[in-house]
Write a structure and sequence with these properties.
binds nicotinamide-adenine-dinucleotide, EC 1.1.1.-, oxidoreductase, 9 helices, NAD(P)-bd_dom_sf
């Protein structure tokens, strides 16, 4: 219940999916949570959900690609809670209808991908760091993706920018470890959120279940619990690491499904 007691946490993309779940779970562990999203009504709903469960929330709009907006988000958090201990740079993604293969990629979408995933992570951290250092340290949690670890037939920008987020995580950890600021990344696999359901046809979603070692897809809470751990002192000796939370999507040999037929039937 008290793993994050009186810590101030700021979560971007908290109007929906994983970001909302992470904010609710951090609040349930005693954190004061600032929730930010570009969708005002969605993020206000997250704030209401937290407060009706007995937590304390500050809901605000932000565009994480706009430095002025990011600076205001951080200032408002510190003004409200007097400190900043945890930052989740959660917003990200690309549009799979524009982010295609190398030759058919829309270059404007590539630039947008860099802004939304990489620049936003860099900016959020840059504005939060001085407050974390002043408070004696902190934890930055970046949302990457398993897409940053593998090649794919489309979304060439998405893989590249998530790989960049993983590397950014390591450099931030190296550069600010001496200031007791930890920085880790979470790489979700397939997680049932609006982002997944809106972007993938149903047959692809069903196919993802077969790719996992576990026979189900992730929930936003599955990722949120990992973020709570990374925000808390339980992870005080962990920095610069990538936590792959993917139901075993990336650990299975590609030959495994085909080789199943070579086994005698299970008794
Ligand atoms: N859902 C998955 O399967 C999955 C898998 C791997 C990685 N991810 C990563 O998780 C993050 C998305 O989270 P989700 O799955 O909960 O998606 P989601 O669509 O449920 O939530 C994303 C939120 O980000 C907000 N947002 C979008 N652009 C913004 C901007 N410029 N400024 C501020 N807010 C903005 C949206 O309004 C929305 O509320 C991304 O970084 C994505 O790459 C998701």
């Amino acid at each position: 219940m008290d793993r994050l007691k009186d810590r101030a946490a700021l979560i971007t993309g908290a109007g929906s999916g994983i970001g909302r779940a992470a904010a609710q779970l951090m609040s349930a562990q005693g954190a004061l949570v600032a929730v930010a999203d570009r969708d005002r009504s969605a993020v206000e709903e997250t704030g209401r959900l937290i407060e009706s469960a007995g937590g304390r929330a500050l809901a605000m709009t932000v565009d994480v690609t706009d430095e002025g907006s990011v600076a205001d988000m951080v200032s408002a958090t510190v003004h409200e809670f007097g400190r900043l201990d945890v930052l989740c740079n959660h917003v990200g993604g690309t549009n799979p209808r524009l982010d295609l293969d190398l030759m058919r990629l829309d270059m404007a979408e590539f630039d947008r991908a860099v802004d939304l995933n990489v620049r936003s992570t860099l900016l959020g951290t840059r504005h939060a760091l001085p407050h974390m250092i002043q408070g004696g340290g902190g934890s930055v949690i970046n949302t990457a993706s398993v897409a940053g670890l593998m090649g794919d037939v489309l979304q060439i920008s998405y893989g590249a920018v998530k790989a960049a987020v993983i590397n950014l995580t390591k450099s931030i950890a190296v550069q600010y470890g001496p200031d007791r600021v930890r920085c880790n990344a979470v790489a979700p696999g397939a997680v049932v959120t609006p982002a997944l359901l809106d972007n993938l046809p149903q047959e692809v979603v069903e196919g993802l279940k077969r790719t996992n070692a576990l026979p189900y897809l992730g929930s936003p809470e599955d990722i949120g619990h990992t973020m709570v751990f990374l925000a808390s002192d339980e992870s005080r000796y962990i920095t610069g690491q990538l936590f792959v939370v993917d139901g075993g999507m990336t650990i299975q040999s590609p030959a495994a499904p085909g080789r199943k037929a070579m086994l005698p039937p299970r008794r």
